[in-house]
Sequence to fold (335 residues):
Amino acid sequence: MKILHKFAAGCLTAALIGSAFGIISNPASAKEFRMLSSWPETMVFTKEIAIAFKDILAKESGGKLTASLSGPEVIPPFEQLQPVQTGVFDILVSLPAYHIGTAALGVGLDGVTGSPAALRSSGLFDVVDAYYQKRDIKVLALVPTSTPGTVGHFMLKKPISGAMGLQGRKIRATPPMHAMVKALGGVPVVLKPGEVYGALEKGVVDGAFWAVNGTSSLKWNEVAGHMSRPTFGSIRLWVFMNLKTWNGLSADQKATVNKAAQKLENEGQRRFDDLAVAEEQTLAKLNVKKTFFIKAEADSLQTMWSSGLWGITEKLAGDEAKSLRAKAVAASMSN
Fold:
């Protein structure tokens, strides 16, 4: 929290100085947002979501809407929602799993299949947007990180052998994945992304879940030489905005932000699908070997994934989660 307080003080000082000397632009004509990402700039999620959104926004606005980007070196990933709620930052690119103790409903949407357009037309987007607005946050975009159902895998120190493919292994996973890891015989462990390499190296964990995209940049292949197949899961990266910041935008600015957000969504799946093909080739060149779950488990991975996500979401978000799940089932987008 000391980091956050110092950063907030710095932002306030800069704002006061800027106002005193008249160097802050008229909000009606130009605005620079303070953007926060849960991952370093070298990570694919920041490159393809945060930086891409920043670039699209600048282009769509003719350079009038820009953003300065900070990352986990300023605010740790699991502590980033609060500074956006309070307005220290305007925009956040992150995952609902990273703030599940504060706002859990969004976690359930990773148990849902369907395109960005389908999420909007089905009304699912509006439900989670209204939920976050009660918490002083506006949802701008839900960006798929590959075709739903093909996003992630386990990086393992040893290959899978037989049924209960993770039997007895300690597996790094976020809380929404714990039920799935247990169903496969594993023991879930919560670690921040930056802690995983050392934990694998020292044998604190035997494997870790991650999206296929970005695995090589983490260098886990140096300490875990096997990747599970088939791939599974749906992970959407969320773009949030402080609600007061959103409400302070003009109608034209809101329209531009929405246009940029939907463009980011629609381009995201194609970009990430292409990147996933290249990533798998890169991992193969790094001598990472494929290891396969038995057919019965392979056929059940997506159901395990979805059921686990909805289970914890319903436990934490109650009737709101049950209502969201029913809406997704009615739209044939979840089990």
Notes: Residues 251-285 form the longest helix (35 residues). The two ends are 40 Å apart (CA to CA). The domain at 152-232+289-330 is CATH 3.40.190.10 (D-Maltodextrin-Binding Protein; domain 2).
